[in-house]
Task: structure prediction
Amino acid sequence: EPRSPWCCLAWTLVIGAVNSLVFLLNLLLMFVIFTIVLLPTIVVVYFGFQCHSQVLHSSARYCESVLDDNSSSALIILGFVIMSPLLVVAMAIYCSLARRLQLLVCFQPYSLALYKGGRWCCARGCNSQLKAWV
Result:
């Protein structure tokens, strides 16, 4: 049976808050995974830009003794070359975790706010028709 207008509004806010929380959890998980997997690229590009004389030209000891402009340019190019495969690896890890944890199933439809008797469905408590993928 349909809910009253105030109850419908309250449930809409609750469902919106739950969906926002699930979205932020997905975003945090993606940020952590991408940061960890792309850390080698970040480090290599950072040192390449830091030691290049046309960009930042740091006065650090390793910039003066080990890295010249040519090696700094090589680090920058290497960093951007290894970024593409690492992006694919990071996305594969995120998709695998999201599928294993069934995070995308935790999003609730707003039709739960309209009618009484709707079931909350998250991860393993769902019936098989509500899965995001097989």
Summary: Confidence is low (pLDDT under 50) at residues 130-134. The CA atoms of residues 33 and 41 lie 14 Å apart. Residues 29-112 form one domain.
